[in-house]
Design brief:
The chain is an alpha+beta fold. The protein folds into 3 domains: 75 residues, Arc Repressor Mutant, subunit A (Orthogonal Bundle); 156 residues, GAF domain (Beta-Lactamase), CATH 3.30.450; 96 residues, Enolase-like, domain 1. 47% of the residues lie in helices and 20% in strands. A hairpin with a 2-residue loop joins strand 9 and strand 10. The longest helix is centred in the last third of the chain and has 25 residues. It is elongated, with a radius of gyration of 26 Å.
Length: 345
């Protein structure tokens, strides 16, 4: 059954007010702040109906109401309006992320995470794909000077490992090109996991006489494998939760910190489907997150998802503003990852 428009307007006013103040909302507050053209008594009756329907709840008999998880769900699905990103915000996001788009995807993601936390005043989390599931696009050897070669290992998520190789003898530019071609013939298209003993022995034969280069490449590949046996979780702004009065309670703070410190639990909070994903309170399957909302979105290259970025906070987080920021940040992450991918072809 469709809810009456008057009830929807009152529910929207309650949610907007509660998101802004964190204080339970009474009928007088709605009548004073919002020009709905109805009396305080009518608003009170409608609020009683909304409570019976499960969209708002009253903590104490003498207090006002606050939205329930069901109320927030109706709000994000039907009532919320997403504001346009301001020119200043757009420039800030583009500038910060593009400045990091040199070689390493990790830097882009960490900069994006810092931005989202700063702009939303919430805890931002990035779940990055495991590197050992990524395919090697290329290994590039670039001459720096007589005794130094830059080795860049590129995957289909961008460059993930850069290191300087110290060589004992000068390697000509022509020889370096040949060595690069031999290496890529062996490893291009493989995942880190697929670089087995046979591949390594073949590489060793190909690079005979250049053991220092061979040793450095293998060391870097093993380092990637060791670091990346599961999807990585990065986090920024954990203490932002203390800005919310409802998290002044020591037990609630302890529960929240326990939640965000558990990477396995955090991975489970992210929905892998495309677009903006919003999980409110009891919709979260994780018990520790029943009083939180999670807003996230996947990022990737050429339509292939590689990870997710999102925020976690109390259920009264400013949904529309968070969605605006995450949408723009994910667009810029995707643009930069695709640029890296195209440049490495």
């Amino acid at each position: 059954m469709e809810m009456e428009e008057r009830k929807l307007k009152i529910l929207q006013a309650i949610i907007n007010d509660y998101i802004n103040t964190g204080e339970p909302v009474g009928s007088r507050t709605i009548a004073k702040k919002y020009d709905l053209g109805i009396s305080s008594a009518t608003i009170r009756n409608e609020m009683a109906d909304l409570e019976d329907m499960g969209y708002i709840e009253q903590l104490h008999t003498s207090s006002g109401r606050r939205p329930s998880d069901k109320g927030y769900r109706l709000y994000v699905d039907k009532l919320m309006e997403i504001p346009r990103i301001s020119p200043e915000e757009e420039i800030l996001i583009k500038t910060k992320i593009i400045n990091e788009a040199i070689f390493e995807v990790d830097k882009i993601l960490k900069q994006a995470m810092s931005l989202v936390s700063e702009m939303t005043k919430l805890t931002c989390i990035v779940k990055a794909s495991s590197s050992n599931k990524s395919h090697i696009k290329a290994i590039q050897l670039i001459k720096v000077d007589v005794n130094s070669i830059l080795c860049v290992i590129l995957t289909d998520t961008g460059a993930i490992k850069n290191s300087i190789i110290r060589v004992t003898k000068n390697v000509s530019a022509d020889d370096l090109m040949k060595l690069t071609a031999l290496i890529n013939e062996r490893v291009k298209g493989l995942t880190i996991e697929q670089i087995n003993l046979e591949v390594i022995n073949n590489l060793k034969t190909d690079l005979s006489g250049h053991e220092d280069i061979f040793s450095s490449i293998i060391t870097n590949l093993y380092a990637i494998l060791k670091e990346s046996d599961s999807s990585e979780v990065y986090m920024e702004g954990t203490t932002n939760i203390f800005n919310y009065p409802e998290f002044q309670d020591v037990e609630k703070v302890r529960e929240f910190l326990s939640l965000v410190e558990n990477n396995d639990i955090i991975r489970g909070l992210f929905n892998g489907s495309s677009g903006i994903n919003i999980s409110i309170g009891n919709e979260n399957q994780i018990i520790e997150a029943k009083e939180c909302s999670v807003i996230s979105s996947v990022y990737g290259i050429q339509g292939r998802p590689f990870g997710a970025i999102g925020v976690i906070g109390p259920t009264r987080i400013p949904y529309s503003n968070v969605i605006k920021v995450i949408t723009e940040v994910v667009e810029q992450i995707n643009n930069n990852l695709n640029r890296l991918y195209d440049n490495d072809e």
